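Hey all, sorry for the wall of text incoming. These are the two entities for the joint prediction.
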Amino acid sequence: MPITIKMPALSPTMEEGTLAKWLVKVGDRVSSGDIMAEIETDKATMEFEAVDEGVVVSIDVSEGSEGVKVGTVIATIAGDDESAAAPAANAQEIAPAPVVEVPPAAPVAAPVAAPVVSVPVASAPVPVAAMPANERVIASPLAKRIALDKGIDLAGVTGSGPHGRIVKADLDGALGSPVAAPISAPAASFAPAPLAAAIPSPAPLATDIPHEAVKLSTMRKTIARRLTEAKATVPHYYLTVDIRLDALLKLRTELNAALGAQGIKLSVNDLMIKALGKALMLAPDANVSFAGDQLIRYSRADISVAVSIAGGLITPIVTGADVKSISTIQKEMTDLAARAKQGKLQPHEYQGGTASLSNLGMFGIKQFDAVINPPQGMIMAIGAGDKRPYVIDDALGIATVMTATGSFDHRAIDGAEGAQLMQAFKSLIEAPLALVA
Amino acid sequence: MAESYDVIVLGSGPGGYVAAIRAAQLGLKAAIVEREVLGGICLNWGCIPTKALLRSAEVFNHMKHAAAYGLAADNVRADVGAVVKRSRAVAKQLNQGVTHLMKKNKITVYMGNGKLLAPGKLEVTSDKGTETLAAKHIIIATGARARELPFAKADGKRIWTYRHAMVPAEIPSKLLVIGSGAIGIEFASFYNDMGAAVTVVEMMDRIVPVEDADVSAFLQKALTKQGMSIMTGAGVQSLETSETGVKAKIKQQDGAILDAEFSHVIVAVGIVPNVENIGLETCKVEPDKRSHIKTDAYCRTNVPGIWAIGDVTDGPWLAHKASHEGVITAEAIAAELGNTEVHPHPMDRNNIPGCTYCHPQVASVGMTEAKAREAGHELKVGNFLFIGNGKAIALGESEGFIKTVFDAKTGELLGAHMIGAEVTELIQGYVVGKTLETTEAELMHTVFAHPTLSEAMHESVLSAYGRALHM
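and here's what came out:
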């Protein structure tokens, strides 16, 4: 029997990916565990291993193909019971012949689908029509029925049921009422409030200006979708404080002197991660997620740290930043950032988190307002620390000061609660010994 | 140094022991604290032993009606002592089963009274002394007990709670059952089958008030036909015990007071949660309006690290609800402790089945017709009588019906309500369907085996859309 190899779902949210590179060619023998291809998902490039044994008889999706839907047949291998002697001949026959469960696209599906749409009677078979013909969307019968009635494209809805299955509640969200979100890790891959339709593309640009059109990477598309969703659906508000850094910088110098022998060098950002983690535990009302008809309160602070990488950004997570020592945070961040830049992070290392930290201080940015990363309730934006005139003991002096701005989801965190977090964050940085105890 | 665990479960009923097993499956170090006997009320004094009693009553009933099946069974009589003995043996067997499961899953069992000292700290007191344990997470699963009447405490002689009613020394000659929820009706049915003259008093205007009104009406008729006397909209105002029996003052629906004398009384007027002396106040765990522990969809209390499941929390107060919460909680805890493989999902209360093992049996899931209308749904309602079902007729148990409630617009199965033979087993078919968010289309498209009682489930769905085949 020929074995069809399908585009794998390499992360829970992955709907499509780019086939970055084939590492096998027609005629190659593969066995279980061999790396067959490199696949670029929305966040990372991952290696795709063979599960079965046999000879590659066809490669159905060429290298560099983008937007390959999960479940699409990308290659076929012949099992060991078949003659491996004539792989080429086999390939001709097998590749187009659908031995495959994946719907073989337009010609067959369209005529069936069309009448269903035009006659939406109660007992009509559950519509395949609500989704593109070659993509299997996992949704409950009721969700499919409602989607058909309301004209919702299920492909644009994130499922909150088991294995990401789309259930009625997810569509209620799309129709404007709250969604009960599942948890997984403490911070969870909550279904981000699903939108009824895909985000509309902006109007095409005028073409007479000399320009180059750069195709969006999968990551870029995900960033665009997630952040548009966040700004459009999360009511943001912003709280800004000035924080004196002198004590923290002094502490860092002392710590680095003491830890130097072990080869540990703490960055200001490592201390900020710790401070935010601890502040969230001191002001737990800000360590929450809005989840439709409920509020999720976390009993641990997992900090997503924005890391700029080629072509976009990613937010690896320092879990339990409230309890980890700063040197542990430093070690983890060094490792996470390095692997983030190589595109080698595992999904669980960047999905989740209870709050985010973004630092643009190194670029001399004085202050900025960051976009919340749902379902998180807040993000802290850190500006540059610089010497400023500062009133010290009723006299004008010079101090190293930075400006930090928290963006908060008002559905989950009220102003006073956000302010308490900012206050706790400021106190911890200005009296930083609490960070090491 | 206190022994330290990832999870400690306080209470080993169907919520607690299941939570501990799931936690252990997920690689967490788990312990369970039990003050009385492993398995809790359900296994030892509730669900299971009553099912054993009711099975005896059922067989007894069959024997009494043997002639209807062409069989002769003369001089049929019940040996109460042996019936109770069998019920206790069944409970014992399951209790040992739980002991084995704890061992198998390497769950440490502490026998004694558990009390929270602080989040993450718990004290166990037994004859052997006091021991302090530490845990990252604590699950409270202490369950509930029978609510007592303010004017008449159960004495175990004439006035019984479920606990006394489960181990009768004799069959009461004249029994008053106060309350017609699942517990009251099951005992009423048992004792009626066993030969007692049974009167049921219910404050609401119908018996089994949580069920669909059609089911209540049908059951009342069936039980009355079996000789039971049922008073709805009525309340017992006082009970006066003597050596020979109990005098009751019952205020009837029309306001008139009835004085009646009974040999025994069973009080089944609901439950109260076991929230006392377990340290909830010390830890500032918040109760809800009815003094149950308040929890979120993942069974978290207001105090981080303290969780609560089962009867000690909001209803429905059913063993399977407690067990399911146990699983969700164990998974949510594992997730909080960093397990990224588990994905707990909150339970949909509309998908929790309820079963009452009277004769005929009652089972339901989801909204009643009245509730669905109240919620603003436009409905399609199906109804199929077991008299139209071949298997039911062959069994000689053709009384009852299956009612299905659909949303007319979406085809969503909103509720199903059944009364009749074996419906407590049948209901699961609809529960699976509801959990998968079925519409009428899938149910109609499902092939039902013939001849089975389940075919009536199919017919009920078909009838909601005017397509029933055998009616």
